[in-house]
Amino acid sequence: QVQVEESGGGSVQAGDSLRLSCTASRRTASNNAMGWFRQAPGREREFVAAISWNGGTTNYLDSVQDRFTISRDNARSTAYLQMNLLKPEDTAVYYCAISRRAVPSTTPNTYQYWGQGTQVTVSS
Questions:
Q1: For labelling alongside 118, which of 16, 43, 58, 96 has CA 20 to 30 A away?
Q2: Long-range contacts made by residues 48-54, C-beta under 8 angstroms, separation at least 24?
Q3: How far are the Cα atoms of 37, 44, 64, 92, 94 from residue 87, in angstroms, in the given order?
Q4: What is the 3-state secondary structure (H, E, C) of 96-121?
Q5: What end-to-end distance do the CA atoms of the chain give, in Å?
Q6: What is the pLDDT of residues 42-76, one digit of tens each?
Q7: Which helix (H) or strand (E) holds 38?
Q8: Residue 102: what are its φ and ψ, rounded to 5°?
Q9: Do the beta carbons of residue 69 and residue 82 sit within 8 Å?
């Protein structure tokens, strides 16, 4: 199976930026989609962004689509989430997930491999 690990979280002020990284334990096949989700205390897990590993197809949560950018580096089995203009409502644990499917989706149950999460805290 695939082991997934996120990094890059931290505590920042509103308006600042962070870049999250997601690395797989082995080379991820180019036909595997990747997604980012987040979960705040007392809230359900929420879709943030997804990308097809072998193409430029991307999907974003409406509230982040003009501020966040998802990208990939297949040679390093790594995906990124560049987060700009962060807001307090972005505060959550962010999870990286990899799907056996090639097509990105917004639903958690289409992703089979999950990281442990990285905390993002945005202060006003």
A1: 58
A2: 48/81, 48/94, 49/81, 50/104, 50/105, 50/106, 51/79, 51/104, 52/102, 52/103, 52/104, 53/28, 53/29, 53/102, 54/30, 54/102
A3: 16, 19, 10, 11, 14
A4: EEECCCCCCCCCHHHCCEECCCEEEE
A5: 40
A6: 999 999 999 997 767 999 999 999 999 999 988 88
A7: strand 34-39
A8: -85, -25
A9: yes
